[in-house]
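In response to reviewer comment 3 from the previous cycle, which asked for concrete evidence that the modeling workflow produces usable outputs, we include below a single protein chain processed end to end. The sequence was submitted unchanged, and the resulting structure tokens are shown without manual editing.
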Amino acid sequence: MPSHAPPGTPLDVELLIEARWVLPMSEGLPTLDDHAVAIDAGRLLGPWPIEEARRRVRARRVLALGHHALLPGLVNAHNHAGMSLMRGFADDLPLMTWLNEHIWPAEAAHVNPRFVADGTRLAIAEMLRSGTTTFADMYLAPEAVAEVVAQAGIRTQLCTPLIDFPTPWAADFGTGLERTRALVERYRDHPLIELAFGPHAPYTVGDDSLRRLLEARERLDLPVQMHVHETADEVEQGLAKHGKRPLQRLFEAGLLGERFQAVHVTQVDDTDLAMLRETGTQVIHCPQSNLKLASGFCPVERLRRAGVNVALGTDGAASNNDLDMIDELRSAALLAKGVSGDAAALPAIEALAMATRDGAHALGLGDRIGQLRDGFEADLIAVDLQAVNTLPVHHPASAIVYAMNSRQVSHSWVAGRPRLVDGILCDSDVEALTRMAMEQQRAMAATSQSGEAQ
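The workflow returned the following structure tokens.
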């Protein structure tokens, strides 16, 4: 879409947003004071200095945000949205105990398409309220998730759950691949939904399944997202069973590359680092979940210095326990400094890049979202920095990462459609969500008590 009209001929646009600061998050472009962007037909125009913007466009509506920062909508690159209904269900446990003795039995007892749809609705409301406009989801009943996403108007990479044992979604790995193909056909042209393969982890996917995954990836041309090197125990088990580290096994299977999204990656030796760098594999960092499950520390600064693209995700609410990317930003920035022993590691603006531009790149959407650039899709948020906890604002990126809380997200748009206005969710019945969550909690509690009684 052109953004430059002949002198004296302003463009007609739907909305002009004037802000105290604009953070475009484009490589090398600084924070801009007193700038504006326009939205028309779901796309961005600008940014320009406010006075120039008023000459360039004739807006049907003007939104003046005199003490706000505008930035791209946040990209939550890894989530299990339906698990929001398991928030706080099994806390303070190591990963494999948490999975084997609590989460997987609870899923067997409770998870069905309605449960997943309800949990996803709750998750989307939380994410939109806290500045996320795109998320990658890896969970059961993806058909139900797709319907909720389409109604909610949030951008999504839907990673279909693939695992070697039966699940409520598919009887086996091959069935999951076929159901993925059907979803691709159904949503191929949807403007907000992208499909990806979501094999669970190397320890739940055998070599034959990896071969079938590679064939299906070549046929359907989809990215792959997978939990990889989440814990030291996972690596040790892989060595014991296969005689090689899980990442090496994935490399030999031909899966690593720019369209492979490795989630967690807390265990990285020199060989791992070389494989990640040379293949261009994406890494998705989930700091709070890794901390809570004592899974380990992703060496973010070491990866970034080697040229590996690192994105940011919350993981699911069952292990985080929130989906607040503003909170995740702060954890990522602080943890990078502590792990590397370098106070200059992952500065605020680079942490924001992880959650915007780099997250979009990791999901294969970097040419459409993640930056405030002319012609990009209008996925953006406004944050109000005039609050006692963020004043004075010497550097907006610093205020957002180190001082702001997500309640200061005032507006959000996805493809130009407002999703949050003055802190109020659009098209979302919060009271109904509250009632639903309480009903699901009571049902899970009753089942747990019944099981304990037996």
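Residues 10 and 57 are 4 Å apart (CA to CA). We consider this sufficient to address the reviewer's concern, and the full set will be provided in the supplementary archive.
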